[in-house]
Amino acid sequence: MQRIQSRIAAHLPNLPGQLRHAAQWIVDNPRDVALLSMREQARRAGVQPASMTRLAQALGYEGFDELRAQHADILRGMGQGLSGQAQKRLKLDVSTPAGMADAMIAHAAAQIADLANSDLLHALEHAAAQLSQSARIFCLGQRSSHAVAWHFYYALSLVSDRSVLLDMTGGTGFDPLMRAGAGDALFVCCVQPYTRAVVDATEQARQRGLRIVAVTDSPFSPLVGPDDTALVVPTASASFLHAMTPAFLMADILAALVARADDPATLARLDGLDRQLATLNTFFQFPDDKAEP
């Protein structure tokens, strides 16, 4: 599915308004593309049926049937492996707390399994290279995405002094961008509904020449520009809340890849951190069983 979405994103700047609406609907409703008639899809997308055909042709398909068949092939493939097993478990009874918890775990497992595709893995590799080559890495996220940005910042701060958190304490969160420029990077996380301040700050960073690595929920996200690296993750949940687990996984993987690129300096920094934490008695220590009473 990621490959189709990337294909749509590449053609997006050249699509007229009606085709853009149709393209956005297809990205947001991949299962319906495989299952519903073209006319019903057009009705739900708020466009004419002919727009669906024109969109498919603009994307390089002979017609809409070919685009729908490709979605159907992907949907059938989801019935295999861990992802398929998790999808079946979503039919469990959710009327009890245990059933609801089981459904949410199954949903998360399916989302994580679907992330292991070549397009996203390639994007992760490219993002890690971009961040590793940057002098400073500014980290940005608000509301539900703040924890993801903070987690990435914290993980990098353990092994490097290059990470800078754009927090909102005192209302000065975006001020460090005044000193940013080419050679720096912005790691930003934001999902629908997109926070305006984050979108504006990302555009400011882009204009200042920063490399942009965006963890977001759609290739059509306002965070993503033509030259940016987008890590597109699902956020649908079995509950009313956003599912942020896939976004956290992107932060975990990126932090590990950036730290790995810094080896062996990473090991030396971690050793120094361990010594400092021990000196400050930071963590709880279990009593020594061999100690005298």
From TrEMBL:
<keyword id="KW-0238">DNA-binding</keyword>
<keyword id="KW-0805">Transcription regulation</keyword>
<dbReference type="InterPro" id="IPR047640">
    <property type="entry name" value="RpiR-like"/>
</dbReference>
<dbReference type="Pfam" id="PF01418">
    <property type="entry name" value="HTH_6"/>
</dbReference>
<protein>
    <submittedName>
        <fullName>MurR/RpiR family transcriptional regulator</fullName>
    </submittedName>
</protein>
<dbReference type="Pfam" id="PF01380">
    <property type="entry name" value="SIS"/>
</dbReference>
<dbReference type="InterPro" id="IPR036388">
    <property type="entry name" value="WH-like_DNA-bd_sf"/>
</dbReference>
<dbReference type="InterPro" id="IPR046348">
    <property type="entry name" value="SIS_dom_sf"/>
</dbReference>
<dbReference type="InterPro" id="IPR000281">
    <property type="entry name" value="HTH_RpiR"/>
</dbReference>
<feature type="domain" description="SIS">
    <location>
        <begin position="127"/>
        <end position="264"/>
    </location>
</feature>
<feature type="domain" description="HTH rpiR-type">
    <location>
        <begin position="2"/>
        <end position="78"/>
    </location>
</feature>
<dbReference type="InterPro" id="IPR009057">
    <property type="entry name" value="Homeodomain-like_sf"/>
</dbReference>
<dbReference type="InterPro" id="IPR001347">
    <property type="entry name" value="SIS_dom"/>
</dbReference>
<dbReference type="InterPro" id="IPR035472">
    <property type="entry name" value="RpiR-like_SIS"/>
</dbReference>
<keyword id="KW-0804">Transcription</keyword>
